[in-house]
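Thread title: Can someone regenerate the structure for this chain?

I was given the following input by a collaborator and told the matching C-alpha cells would be attached. They weren't. Posting the sequence so someone can regenerate them.
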Amino acid sequence: MVALAAATALLAGCSSSDGKSGGNPLTDSKASGDTVVVGSNNFPESTLLADIYGEALKAKGIKVSYKPNIGSRETTYGLIKNGSIKVLPEYNGALLAYLDPKAKPTTAEATTTAIEAKLDSKLTLLKPAAAESKDSVTLNAATAKKYHLTDKSTIADLKGIAKDLVMGASPEFQTRQQGLVGLKSVYGLEFKSFKALDAGGPLTQAALKKNAVQAADIFTTDSTISKEKFVVLQDPKNLFGFENVQPLVRKGVLSQKGVDALDAVSAKLDTATLLDLDTQVQVQGKDPLDVAKAWLQSAGIA
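Best answer:
Regenerated them for you:
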C-alpha cells in the first residue's frame, strides 16, 4: 500500500511504555497464559490503532501486551502466522494486494471475501471499519474556496475545472489506473499539467500548501489535511479502491467478548475520526496510548 510506505516515521517510536512489552519485538518470547499480544507496523497510525484495539480488549478484562513498531507487512504477517502476535491492525485493500496482487474487488465486502480466500488458515478478519487511509484527489484551501468545493464535493465536480489545475503526485501516478489514467477514464478529467513529486509525502504536501500544485494525491488520514485545511474530494466511483481499517487476528485467540470489543471499535471508527486522532498524535504530539484511551471513553467502548 502506497500510503503505508509514505506514512511519516516522525513518531514511529513514540508510544507510552505503559503495558508495552520491551526488547526486540522480533525475538521476544510469546506472552504466556491468556495474554493477547497486539502488534503494529512501524508507522504512527498503526501504533495508534494497535493501542485502540488493545485498550478496547483491556476494557473487557482481557490481558493484553503490545509489540509496537515491528516493521513492514512482510514481517508482521509472518509473526501473526507463527503466533508471536495475535492481533494486528490491517488495511483490507493493502492486505489483499499483498496476498493476491491481481485481485480487483468492487466492494469492501468483496475485498474481505477475497482476503479470506487467501489468508493463512490460522488467521481471520473481523469486521472492517468505515475508516480508510488511501489515495485521494485533494485540493488546497484556496483552490477549494475559488471553485466552491467542500469535503462533500466529489472528484466528478472537477470535470470543468481540471483543465485549469496542476496535479501533483508520485511519478508513478501518471501511468496508474489509480492515478491519471483512471481519473481520465473513470471521471473524464484531464489536468492542465502534472508535477512529479513524492508519494503523498513532504514534497507533495509543501507543493499543495504553496499552490505550486492545486490538486494532489494526499492520503486520506494524513494529518496535514486538517493542519492546512486541505479539502479531500469524495470518490463515489471507488477509483482508489478500498483501504478500510480491519483487525487481523489468529483464530481461537479472542473470546466472543473480545471479538465484540473490536467490532465495536470498527463500528465507531470512520475516516474523519481517524484523521482527528492522527492529528492529535502527529501534529499535537500527544501520546498515542492516551489518545486511544480518551477516544474509547468518548465512544462509549471503554
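Residues 2-132+242-298 form a domain with the D-Maltodextrin-Binding Protein; domain 2 fold (CATH 3.40.190.10).
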